[in-house]
Design brief:
- The chain is built from 8 helices and 8 strands, in the order αβββαβααβαβαβαβα.
- By secondary structure, the chain is an alpha/beta fold.
- Helix 4 packs across helix 5.
- 43% of the residues lie in helices and 23% in strands.
- It is globular, with a radius of gyration of 18 Å.
- It has one domain: Alpha/Beta hydrolase fold, catalytic domain (Rossmann fold).
Length: 247
């Protein structure tokens, strides 16, 4: 009987620890109140922080897992929810949700996420970065364009820009991760983006995985997942963020 109670206690502790890993929080975005999930590392802060931006599927379990892993690296990580609680299970619904997000509202939500993190006592105000995948990768670029105080930015196969008047707004170091077989964001697009930034004196790193396509980092992408490339991209991301947010 004693062993049964001990086992139950261990299970409850495990469940409680898991539940406490991410905390649902609310913050103001214009006249609206929006929600996100906040992950805080163990130990005593203040810590550097990250805005984590989901793919076109929405704030699903994979994005939560990535946010938790980033928090384990020593960051206060805020997973934003641009879909207001909706999560897609099919590509058709994902496409519908993505197209239904007003760009100005998304940018307002992302700026609000940055402002929320700066307001937290356990966050280093000058060490806030952003990271996103797919749709979220494009929005990660938008955060760099919107917020001159952003300290690091990771774009995983997100939309790009090449207009000098647009790119001159970027002050954050950029890491771009892309697939060489991506038919939406081609290596030529990536090269133009990187060359333009470098010509303007911006700090830019880029890696193109030649055998990978779009969304190759997500194991839910059954046909396109490339585990070795995904592991390498994760290591690259971890080192880039540490170099720019922890030093």
């Amino acid at each position: 009987m004693k062993q049964s109670w001990t086992l139950l206690a261990l299970i409850l502790l495990t469940v409680s620890a898991f539940a406490a890993d991410g905390k649902r929080i609310s913050y103001k975005s214009g006249d609206e109140t929006v929600q996100g999930i906040l992950y805080t590392p163990a130990g005593k802060g203040p810590f550097p922080a990250l805005i984590v931006i989901h793919e076109w599927w929405g704030l699903n379990d994979w994005v939560k897992e990535q946010t938790s892993k980033l928090s384990d690296q020593g960051y206060v990580a805020l997973a934003v929810d641009l879909y207001r609680g909706k999560v897609a299970a099919t590509p058709d619904l994902a496409h519908e949700l993505m197209r239904g997000v007003p760009e100005d509202r998304a940018n307002r939500d992302l700026k609000a996420a940055f402002d929320y993190l700066t307001s937290q006592p356990d966050v280093k105000k000058n060490r806030i970065g952003a990271i996103g995948w797919c749709m979220g990768g494009g929005y990660a670029l938008d955060v760099a364009l919107l917020e001159p105080a952003l300290a690091a930015d990771v774009i995983n196969y997100g939309h790009l820009a090449t207009d000098p008047d647009t790119l001159k707004k970027i002050h954050a170091p950029i890491l771009g991760i892309f697939g060489g077989q991506d038919r939406g964001i081609t290596p030529e697009d990536v090269d133009r983006f990187a060359e333009q930034l470098k010509s303007m004196g911006k700090k830019m790193e880029v890696k193109i995985y030649p055998d990978a396509g779009h969304a190759f980092e997500n194991p839910n992408n059954k046909d396109g997942y490339r585990p070795a490339d995904a592991a390498d991209a994760w290591d690259l991301t971890v080192h880039f963020l540490a170099d720019n947010l922890k030093k």
